[in-house]
Amino acid sequence: MTEPNKTKPSLLVLAAGMGSRYGGLKQIDPIGPSGEAIIEYSMYDAIKAGFGKIVFVIRQSFEQAFKDMIGDKLDGLCEVKYVYQELDRSLGDFPLPQGREKPWGTGHAILVAADVINEPFAVINADDFYGGYSYKAIAEYLTAAAGENDYCMVGYTLSNTLSENGSVARGVCQCDDAGNLLKVAEHAQIAKNNSIITCLDDAGKDKTLTGEEVVSMNLWGFGPSIFTHLKTSFDKFLAEHGNEEKSEFYIPFVVDDLINQSTAKVKVLKSEASWFGITYPDDKPTVVAKLAELVDKGLYPKNLWEK
Known about the structure:
The chain has helices at residues 18-22, 38-49, 63-69, 106-111, 132-144, 226-241, 251-260, 284-296, and strands at residues 10-14, 53-58, 79-84, 121-125, 128-129, 150-157, 168-175, 181-193, 196-200, 206-209, 214-222, 265-271, 276-277. The chain is of the alpha/beta class. It has a single domain, classed as Alpha-Beta Complex (Spore Coat Polysaccharide Biosynthesis Protein SpsA, Chain A). Mean pLDDT is 89; it is low at 1-5.
């Protein structure tokens, strides 16, 4: 019988798009009571859950600003690494297409960290709030997983991930009776009108949802074997779509292929917590209020980094 892994897992934070999404790092909105950004709550929860290293995927152009604003707060708390998602990274012999400006996608963002992660790790979006339970659950799974291709993801109840200020896109999870992921089906334009939730399914057809569906919010747990799978898949992606200006290499597509090939198993860890992020500017007051409520309940200190 294979011994469970006892190495502390790492957290991989996908932050290379922060500059473009926020119009510059200086405009990352403070949403905590002491001016914390959402990413800081992820860092805090990960350390508390037992993650031993945090790796930030950023762009080299804003490295120093990112360290000054975010990364330096982790000094003395855990190991910190930085990797860069630049357009010419991990292309091998494939030439960078002239005029390509769009990033290669989340799969590529994970792949660029291959040289600094040799242990099981979780992947998150930098600008999403996932909640402490999610980090604890995924850390426990990664520590106990016996097989090198035993992966996981945290699934959220759809109704706990919606915005009151516009539609969203979500990946709806289809699972077997054992809770293993079978497929992530992308649904667009999900919106709640009164008590009715409508969307466009992955075939572009109108559909009604119950709100109880389990959805992926890009919180994945992998072993280091994923890097080999990603490299193989990315090479194939480049050969087929690399010369398209806007093509992107998404991690759910790779996971779907691994599941279909019976190469990997992905356990869905269900969370009843509320995910939140600032999809629309009008979401910010709601997020600020929710975090203040969590602080009032004693789940977070008023100042995350006060010694």
